[in-house]
Structure to design on (1284 residues):
């Protein structure tokens, strides 16, 4: 078990290091000269050279990569080129906002998804199942900007229940800001919700057909006990993996959702950085997102193994 | 006791209603076990599960009555039914591993029954489970209760399931192929156990199986099912000695009998295949395949009528049904004499001290420093296959028998040792062998469904080796492929079919035709018949024998089924954990002296003849893993004739007997003969008659 | 059909025997498979939707896609402009609808390329096995460890959203996914007896790969590709929404007017990437 966890950890670290190379490589061949961007077109060549030297841009790429990664690990993420402020506090401030949004979304879609999936599986081929399945199909992969528009049209414009803009003033408490979180949270949750519903449904349907569920039924156990004792602990295992992968979609979804709703989170920060070609900021945010994604996958893997005796004892 | 009367069960499907079980009756008393025998599609499981009202949601009982100790099961509500399931009705399933929940401890799963139906608290239930596990002869019950299912072997798991089913001393115990997934030696242990528990518990047992041999071990009465109806019901002995239905008679003729006569005979074949439920013939459902059919048979469905004391048959012509001996004489023919390698036949393939090792799972964290234990799948095997003869290789799962065959054909290259064809050394890997060599060795695989490429037609499959290895042109190959189809008794019209339009037996025939297409000298048959129905097995064995006589091809026939191996082989090799234990002409291997392992196999084989007496020699424990081969004699951990330290510490010598007969054991041959005089007493009806 | 009808309260049972006789027609089979593999169905629906949009788009767009209206620049979604407006006050919905023809083409080309490359990698990697397979799969895993949109953003931010680059990004994103599907099929198929039979009769490796293995990996490959296709459309559309998407066909001379005079000299070309200033800062 420990060996399994260590190996998984090794793979995740390797993956993240390789990802950091990709991020670095992609941003470093970014066209456009940082010095020109910072100093403007009419700056003297000398000033530009100085700035490049100052930023370390005249060193070989490998050295630049090494020092960048080293600094990142040590917590020195450098300064943003466009805002001219330190990156780390900026990113963490945004990350905190996104985390709140993600948490609200998570608390909504995980339980709702599991329950809907279970209902669909237990009432297989009934109209409830059809509705849930078709509904979740419709949401799988629906781009966030489309679902956001639909939600805004219904709940803000037509019904006027919820605000369509979610810019939150610094200092407002989360409780007062909560209504602003609802629409973006739902938007960002829809895709993941659909996947959880589908995964829960199909794995539960599979488990319901196993021999051991037949054994449990023919033991004379009442249906609810068959479900809770024998079905759920096996059928919810694959759902764990989907929840972890869902974190990835969540991250992707945040980029769009935050810009639709004007929500100051990490996704919008990344977009801003991309639009301003703010290389250090792009690098830091992208790597952070990859890191979060990697860690959530690691947790899911280990959790899956811990909950599954077939892996635990091997 | 259980009384089923006129039970009918239907399934509603997209294309219509399928009458899976029609107007079926049976009766089982306390302490009695009733065997339901049938091939796949006979409805035997549907009948049993339908009787206790456990059906797929598209299945329903459409008539009849099922009474258990006088209670009509068909009138019960769901809730009342649940009170019976698990308490008055116990069920044992085919695959013990999937029948238990993989993520719950065994003890807890078993205790659930005691708590639910016996109203025990946790502690009492656990005590009860320990008692029950001890009753099914489980070594160390307490440790077993703290295990998960995947940590136990199949035999142990099946004992757990049996313990669970008997926990409440049920009135009815349904056993659905409980030993089919197990090895022969384990199967024998479980069958013994069931036979013993039958005396101790007063349950009525319904035992479902496809295996006519297994039936003889524990059933008192037997019913033979065919396409949803009983053809015949009789007491065990009567059914085997004097079957009064042509289907039973033919089924018995399909099973190879142990015999030591040097003559190789064909088996009885049943033409055609089991009818589909949506196109049943109007009269007798067996009429299209029956060799005694008359016009009267097709007029009306013959009912299951009494034809003697406790004997009933659904045949209107039961009076003319001959005895099994007569039928065997009339419907089978002598094909060849057994040959021995030492006498006639030059060696075709020699396998010389072949070893196949794989890298086992690694230990330790770091990739570079990980130690790998070797899996010694084949660990020094030497064999000779003679021209035009059959070498049978028999062994349980994990014996490495398949790996030997794959080494010969080059799919799993041998890591050490030499394989020679016509005296010339072969490259270990098929990829590095020359076309001319490849052409000489072909293979027929176990799984008919995976043997043929689902996207290519039958004709393509057979023509390809003709073009590639036989150097034929397209049109020539097509003509020859049609001939080959005919040779394996398939209509030439199958040429354009895709594999999914064929039955399992038909696919295997195509695979045989494909193997013969290259006109090889040797064909490796890796369990080619074990996944098929009894009657299909019989006809495929006939086909293999017929083609061998015509083409003078050699076979290596690999199987876990000793009766099939002895039926087909001239020479037999018995393998255990990667090494040959005994080797010799078929007749000498089947007569004492035996290697103690061969002896155990012979006494465990379920023989389809209630009169054959077998000394109960049972093996303890499980087949050791190929990563942990025991020291000295590798059989010593389980050997019933274990001698002590000498077996544990020293590799035994080869002891040479008659002709090419060799036994790998510390016990001298003459002592073995004395010890084993009575292992398998053949008192078959054929000899009495 | 492999699914049995089981519900906990309905009580399950043994598999019902399958009827023979009329086998369902191929068309029904395809339909049933589509329904059972919802991803494929979604792919089909999206495909059709965008096809319709591509053909009829210009007729249903609420505004002229290039009509500028400075009064409504950079608007968030409103009833008049459901998707908002861009920096020149052009209706984003109209631009998407009109751009859909391009989205369709770009996503399709990217997916097709990904399917080709992914299949090649999956086949080679799966059949070779061993260390090579391990290394290739690890590298592809790295690409998979990025949320798609993130990787697309990072890549596009560096090379700019030309049509070619969009296609390449879609390809890079989907190659690993398709390669994985193909590889797992290969791993499964290469131990199948019919493949071994081919090896035993000395077939060339290319024959085994392309005649025995590939045809049998097609069904899951097609499903995956159609699914990827629908996602690629969403992806390109999303990127468009973020200002990194398809460049609508510019009317003659419009390019220059779209580009502020201060455009960076390091990026020549009349219609290159111009990120929409976001309403962010
Ligand atoms: S009734 Fe006729 S067809 Fe049927 S089994 Fe008897 S003899 Fe054969
Ligand atoms: S050598 Fe010993 S342990 Fe091995 S088979 Fe002979 S008697 Fe048994």
């Amino acid at each position: 078990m420990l060996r399994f966890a260590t190996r998984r950890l090794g793979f995740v670290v390797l993956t993240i290091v390789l990802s950091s190379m990709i991020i670095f490589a992609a941003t470093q061949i970014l066209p456009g000269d940082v010095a020109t961007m910072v100093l403007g077109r009419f700056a003297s060549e000398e000033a530009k050279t100085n700035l490049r030297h100052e930023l370390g841009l005249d060193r070989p790429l490998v050295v630049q990569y090494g020092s960048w990664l080293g600094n990142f690990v040590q917590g020195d993420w450098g300064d943003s080129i466009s805002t001219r402020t330190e990156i780390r506090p900026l990113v963490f401030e945004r990350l905190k906002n996104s985390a709140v949004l993600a948490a609200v979304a998570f608390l909504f879609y995980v339980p709702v998804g599991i329950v809907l999936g279970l209902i669909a599986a237990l009432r297989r081929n009934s109209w409830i199942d059809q509705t849930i399945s078709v509904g979740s199909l419709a949401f799988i992969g629906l781009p966030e900007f489309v679902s956001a528009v639909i939600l805004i049209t219904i709940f803000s414009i037509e019904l006027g229940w919820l605000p369509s803009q979610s810019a939150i003033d610094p200092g407002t408490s989360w409780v007062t800001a909560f209504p602003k979180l609802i629409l973006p949270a739902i938007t960002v949750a829809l895709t993941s919700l659909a996947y959880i519903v589908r995964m829960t449904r199909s794995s539960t349907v599979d488990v319901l057909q196993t021999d051991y569920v037949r054994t449990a039924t023919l033991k004379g156990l009442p249906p609810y006990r068959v479900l809770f004792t024998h079905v759920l602990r096996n059928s919810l295992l694959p759902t764990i993996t989907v929840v972890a992968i869902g974190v990835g979609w969540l991250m992707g979804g945040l980029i769009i959702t935050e810009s639709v709703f004007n929500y100051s989170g990490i996704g919008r920060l990344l977009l801003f950085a991309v639009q301003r070609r703010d290389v250090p900021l792009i690098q830091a945010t992208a790597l952070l997102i990859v890191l979060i994604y990697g860690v959530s996958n690691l947790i899911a893997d280990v959790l899956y193994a811990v909950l599954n005796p077939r892996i635990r004892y091997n | 006791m259980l009384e089923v009367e006129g039970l009918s069960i239907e399934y509603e499907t997209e294309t219509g209603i399928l009458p899976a079980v029609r107007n079926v009756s049976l009766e089982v008393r306390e302490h009695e076990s009733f065997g339901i025998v049938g091939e796949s599609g006979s409805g035997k499981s549907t009948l049993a599960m339908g009787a206790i009202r456990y059906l797929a949601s598209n299945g329903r009982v459409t008539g009849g009555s099922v009474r258990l100790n006088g209670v009509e099961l068909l009138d019960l509500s769901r809730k009342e039914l649940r009170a019976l399931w698990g308490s008055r009705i116990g069920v044992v399933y085919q695959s013990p591993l999937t029948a238990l929940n993989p993520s719950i401890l065994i003890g807890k799963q078993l205790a659930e029954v005691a708590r639910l139906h016996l109203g025990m608290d946790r502690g009492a239930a656990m005590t009860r489970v320990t008692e029950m596990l001890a009753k099914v002869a489980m070594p160390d019950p307490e440790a077993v209760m703290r295990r998960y299912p995947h940590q136990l072997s199949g035999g142990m798991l099946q004992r757990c399931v049996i313990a669970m089913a008997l926990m409440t001393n049920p009135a009815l115990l349904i056993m659905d192929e409980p030993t089919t997934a197990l090895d022969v030696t384990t199967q024998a242990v479980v069958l013994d156990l069931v036979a013993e528990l039958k005396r101790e518990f007063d349950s009525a047992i319904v035992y479902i199986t496809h295996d006519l041999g297994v039936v003889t071990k524990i059933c008192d009465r037997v019913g033979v099912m065919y396409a949803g109806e009983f053809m015949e019901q009789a007491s065990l002995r009567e059914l085997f000695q004097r079957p009064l239905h042509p289907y039973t008679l033919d089924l018995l003729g399909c099973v190879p009998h142990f015999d030591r006569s040097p003559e190789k005979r064909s088996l009885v074949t049943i033409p055609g295949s089991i009818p589909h439920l949506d196109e049943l013939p109007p009269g007798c459902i067996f009429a299209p395949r029956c060799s005694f059919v008359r016009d009267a048979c097709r007029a009306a469905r013959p009912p299951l009528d009494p034809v003697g004391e406790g004997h009933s048959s659904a045949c209107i012509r039961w009076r003319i049904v001959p005895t099994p001996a007569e039928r065997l004489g009339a419907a089978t023919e002598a094909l060849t004499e057994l040959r021995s390698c030492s006498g006639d036949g030059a060696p075709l393939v020699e396998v010389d001290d072949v070893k196949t090792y794989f890298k086992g799972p690694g230990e330790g964290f770091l990739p570079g420093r990980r130690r790998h234990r070797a899996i010694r799948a084949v660990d020094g095997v030497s064999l000779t296959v003679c021209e035009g003869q059959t070498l049978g290789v028999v062994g349980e799962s994990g014996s490495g028998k398949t790996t030997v065959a794959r080494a010969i054909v080059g799919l799993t290259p041998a890591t050490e040792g030499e394989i020679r064809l016509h005296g010339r050394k072969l490259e270990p890997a098929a990829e590095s062998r020359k076309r001319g060599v490849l052409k000489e060795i072909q293979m027929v695989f176990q799984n008919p469904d995976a043997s043929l490429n689902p996207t290519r037609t039958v004709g393509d499959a057979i023509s390809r080796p003709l073009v590639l290895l036989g150097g034929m042109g397209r049109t020539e190959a097509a003509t020859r492929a049609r001939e080959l189809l005919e040779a394996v008794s398939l209509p030439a019209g199958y040429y354009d079919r895709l594999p999914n339009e064929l039955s399992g037996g038909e696919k295997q025939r195509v695979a045989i035709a494909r193997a013969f297409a290259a006109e090889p000298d040797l064909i490796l048959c890796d369990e080619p018949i074990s996944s098929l129905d009894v009657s299909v097995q019989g006809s495929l064995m006939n086909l293999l024998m017929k083609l061998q006589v015509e083409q003078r091809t050699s076979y290596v026939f690999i199987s876990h089924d000793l009766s099939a191996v002895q039926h087909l082989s001239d020479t037999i090799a018995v393998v255990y954990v990667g090494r040959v234990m005994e080797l010799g002409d078929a007749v000498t291997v089947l007569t004492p002296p035996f290697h103690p392992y061969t002896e155990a196999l012979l006494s465990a084989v379920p023989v389809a003849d209630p009169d054959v007496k077998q000394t109960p020699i049972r093996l303890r424990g499980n087949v050791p893993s190929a990563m942990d081969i025991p020291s000295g004699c590798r059989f010593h951990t389980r050997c019933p004739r274990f001698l002590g330290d000498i077996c544990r510490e020293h590799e035994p010598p080869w002891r040479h007997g008659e002709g090419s007969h060799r036994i790998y054991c510390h016990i001298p041959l003459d002592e073995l003969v004395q010890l084993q005089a009575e292992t398998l007493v053949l008192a078959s009806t054929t000899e009495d008659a | 059909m492999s699914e049995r009808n089981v519900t906990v309260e309905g009580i399950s049972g043994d598999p019902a025997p399958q009827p023979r006789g009329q086998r369902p027609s191929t068309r029904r089979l395809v339909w049933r498979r589509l329904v059972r593999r919802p991803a494929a169905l979604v792919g089909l629906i999206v495909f059709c939707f965008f096809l319709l949009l591509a053909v009829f788009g210009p007729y249903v767009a609420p505004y002229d896609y290039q009509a500028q209206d400075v009064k409504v620049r950079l608007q968030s979604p409103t009833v008049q402009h459901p998707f908002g407006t861009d920096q020149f006050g052009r209706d984003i919905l109209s631009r998407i609808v009109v751009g859909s023809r391009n989205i369709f083409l770009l996503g399709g080309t990217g997916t097709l390329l990904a399917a080709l490359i992914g299949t090649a990698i999956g086949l080679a990697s799966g059949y070779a096995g061993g260390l090579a397979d391990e290394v290739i799969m690890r590298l592809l895993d790295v690409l998979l460890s990025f949320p798609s949109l993130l990787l697309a953003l990072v890549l596009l931010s560096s090379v700019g959203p030309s049509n070619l680059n969009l296609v390449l990004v879609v390809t890079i994103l989907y190659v690993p996914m398709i390669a994985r599907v193909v590889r797992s099929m290969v791993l499964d198929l290469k131990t199948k007896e019919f493949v071994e039979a081919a090896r035993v009769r000395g077939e060339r490796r290319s024959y085994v790969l392309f005649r025995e293995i590939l045809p049998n990996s097609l069904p899951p490959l097609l499903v995956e590709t159609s699914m990827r296709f629908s996602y690629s459309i969403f992806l390109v559309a999303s990127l468009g929404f973020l200002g990194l998407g398809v460049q609508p066909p510019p009317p003659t001379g419009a390019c220059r007017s779209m580009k502020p005079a201060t455009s960076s000299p390091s990026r020549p070309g009349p219609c290159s990437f111009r990120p929409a200033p976001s309403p962010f800062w």
The mean pLDDT of chain C is 69.
